[in-house]
């Protein structure tokens, strides 16, 4: 893009103005930073995004130039994504590369160096090679065949996105990839993997399988997919900014001191932190290196005195960030991470803590090669981060209250616009985004909105596109699962809406899901209870009819961080982490009839002490419902609800009315009052 000039007289004048504004960067440096941004932390709001780079202090010519550059980048990405990729040619190129390296196959996971669900465009290798865009999955490409493995959430999606002529479809748990590899790989075969993209546990399990079948598992020094991906996006360079204490609730120095004390008590000299959300929470910073989640991709090492080394590209740091971090945090370049790990080999008896569930196998390999004493233990930040403090809880309540206004205005609009047949899934999602943008402290969506009508609603993690979009017409159900990132909290809500008159079956299935939702919302449970012990409450009513759903009932949620946060969750799969006060989770049972419709009802809840049980003999916990939005009463069959369930529904709707009616325009308020009319037994 051309250099800004005109009223400011070129870069020299711009640089002078930037210095006067105290931004500490030249115009060229700011342009380079912007050009490296793949997913800005406020991608849905360009003005807020520019605010992170200096806002009103930016010269007008430069601000206009940056906006134009962002628009051009977005158009280029859209154009690239709209092109129909030739996955057969990509697989052929990868097989040629594997043959050149003497490999019989290669494993392509959907992950990056941080093993997270949220990855930058550069790490979307699974999507590039196969077409699958889900948030979890894995492909194995051999020289003569290939398979893709996904869980039950993506059974329909993978069939829609991935060619059966190129990949066999496999269930991630029912037909494990290790067993498929063992059967498909020729004896003596050499299977490659990228040690940055897998955990040490995965490597050890697969190596044991390979040993049984006479094969070799080999760590590749560089990724073969990258070698054949000609237009692979660059590494992201989104701005890293302070997260204000009025939202964080606790100074970073205090968090570091707490971590140091915990390490000392455990006898660990230091901990290697590999999860960007842990680092963001610990240091009270936020970034934007991945879509919709304010993560600064980085690594860190904290020792038992609280001193922290942060390994990050300095170009990401906004002026003043180093002052915010303080003198207990040292900024290191990313290529200093390996040598920093090596130094633990020279510290006799010093235990370095690394989480085997989330750290890349490369990190363990490097430490062991240096003869370091590695202690396999959980990320020490995860639990403190999950236990939201009072400021974070107050912030998330405020965020949900603002979000509720937008969602309710959307539902009122949908009530009249939906049945006309003129609204499509894309337009509906865009309408909700526009309404959210008007709320204070809004920064972005918290994930790409799931907007599915009829059969598309039965795809649990459906991603709408012009090719798959359906128009809303009377006769089926519309499911919208969406959320937002506000500076004071993260939201996630799902509502299922009848477009026109629902069938008796739809009403029955919806009410069974509602019964499960209420069972979780009203649960009382002893301290020490895990989410897996509660999961069956959400499924009981469905099970009585021979029905179920193929996803967890609830996931943890962060505070202006990841919409999917561990270690807490509510699911069938065994979870040994007890629920504790301050933890935020989703409550989202569902039902999906393939080819017809999907149902999900999702609110966020916070774990709290249960103070209303008289005569309780042990400490008890309960849930506070955070989300405020009406549930579609047209889909409720009252005869299937108990009196206690009807009382909960009416009380919830009364709370929604009380909180929202004063904030709504008269027409929307009138709609809400009618939409939340008490249900009669």
UniProtKB/TrEMBL annotation:
Residues 396-608 form the Peptidase M24 domain. Gene3D superfamilies: Creatinase/methionine aminopeptidase superfamily, Creatinase/prolidase N-terminal domain. Pfam families: Creatinase_N, Creatinase_N_2, Peptidase_M24, Peptidase_M24_C. The keyword Secreted does not apply. Keywords: Aminopeptidase, Hydrolase, Metal-binding, Protease. One of its GO terms (molecular function) is aminopeptidase activity. Residues 90-211 form the Creatinase N-terminal domain. Residues 619-678 form the Peptidase M24 C-terminal domain. The keyword Transcription does not apply. Belongs to the peptidase M24B family. This is Aminopeptidase P family protein. It comes from Skermanella cutis.
């Amino acid at each position: 893009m051309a250099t800004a000039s005109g009223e400011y007289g070129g870069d020299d004048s711009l640089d002078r103005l930037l210095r006067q504004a105290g931004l500490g960067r030249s115009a060229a440096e700011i342009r380079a930073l912007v050009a490296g941004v793949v997913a800005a932390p406020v991608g849905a709001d360009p003005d807020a995004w520019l605010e992170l780079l200096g806002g009103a202090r930016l010269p007008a010519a430069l601000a206009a130039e940056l906006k134009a550059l962002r628009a051009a980048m977005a158009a280029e990405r859209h154009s690239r994504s709209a092109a129909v990729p030739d996955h057969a040619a990509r697989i052929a190129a990868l097989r040629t590369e594997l043959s050149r390296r003497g490999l019989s196959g290669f494993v392509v996971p959907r992950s990056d160096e941080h093993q997270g669900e949220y990855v930058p465009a550069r790490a979307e290798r699974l999507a590039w090679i196969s077409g699958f865009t889900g948030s979890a999955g894995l492909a194995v490409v051999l020289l003569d065949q290939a398979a893709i493995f996904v869980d039950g959430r993506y059974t329909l999606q993978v069939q829609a996105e991935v060619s059966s002529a190129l990949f066999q479809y496999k269930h991630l748990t029912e037909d494990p990839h290790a067993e498929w590899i063992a059967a498909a790989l020729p004896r003596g075969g050499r299977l490659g993997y990228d040690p940055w993209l897998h955990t040490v546990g995965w490597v050890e399990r697969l190596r044991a399988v390979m040993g049984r079948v006479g094969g070799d598992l080999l760590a590749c020094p560089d990724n073969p997919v990258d070698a054949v991906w000609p237009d692979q996006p660059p590494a992201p360079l989104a701005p890293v900014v302070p997260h204000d204490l009025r939202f964080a609730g606790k100074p970073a120095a205090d968090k570091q001191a707490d971590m140091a004390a915990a390490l000392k008590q455990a006898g660990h000299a230091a901990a290697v932190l590999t999860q960007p959300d842990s680092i963001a929470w610990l240091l009270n910073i936020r970034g934007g290196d991945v879509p919709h989640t304010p993560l600064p991709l980085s690594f860190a090492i904290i020792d038992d005195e609280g001193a922290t080394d942060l390994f990050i590209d300095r170009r990401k740091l906004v002026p003043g960030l180093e002052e915010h971090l303080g003198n207990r945090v040292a900024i290191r370049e990313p290529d200093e991470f390996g040598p920093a790990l090596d130094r633990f080999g020279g510290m006799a008896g010093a235990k370095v803590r690394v989480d085997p569930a989330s750290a890349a196998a490369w990190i363990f390999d490097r430490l062991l090669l240096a003869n370091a004493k590695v202690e396999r233990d959980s990320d020490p930040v995860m639990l403190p981060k999950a236990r939201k403090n009072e400021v974070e809880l107050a912030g998330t309540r405020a965020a949900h209250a603002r979000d509720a206004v937008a969602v309710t205005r959307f539902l009122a609009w949908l009530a009249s616009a939906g049945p006309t047949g003129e609204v499509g899934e894309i337009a509906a999602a865009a309408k909700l985004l526009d309404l959210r943008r008007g709320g204070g402290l809004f920064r972005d969506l918290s994930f790409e909105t799931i907007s599915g009508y009829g059969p598309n609603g039965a795809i649990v993690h459906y991603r709408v596109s012009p090719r798959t979009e359906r128009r809303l017409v009377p006769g089926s159900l519309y499911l919208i699962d969406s959320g937002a990132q506000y500076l004071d909290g993260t939201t996630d809500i799902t509502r299922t809406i009848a477009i026109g008159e629902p069938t008796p079956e739809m009403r029955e299935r919806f009410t069974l899901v509602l019964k499960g939702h209420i069972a979780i919302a009203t649960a009382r449970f002893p301290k020490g209870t895990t989410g897996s012990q509660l999961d069956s409450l959400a499924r009981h009513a469905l099970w009585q009819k021979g029905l179920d759903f193929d996803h967890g009932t609830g996931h943890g949620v962060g505070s202006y961080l990841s919409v999917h946060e561990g270690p807490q969750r509510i699911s069938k799969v065994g979870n040994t982490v007890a629920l504790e006060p301050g933890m935020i989770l989703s409550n989202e049972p569902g039902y999906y009839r393939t080819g017809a419709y999907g149902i999900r009802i999702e609110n966020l809840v916070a774990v709290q002490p249960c103070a209303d049980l008289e005569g309780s003999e042990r400490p008890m916990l309960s849930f506070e419902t955070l989300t405020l939005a009406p549930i579609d009463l047209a889909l409720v069959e009252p005869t299937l609800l108990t009196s206690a369930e009807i009382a909960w529904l009416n009380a919830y709707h009364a709370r929604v009315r009380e909180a929202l009616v004063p904030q709504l325009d008269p027409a929307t308020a009138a709609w809400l009052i009618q939409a939340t009319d008490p249900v009669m037994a």
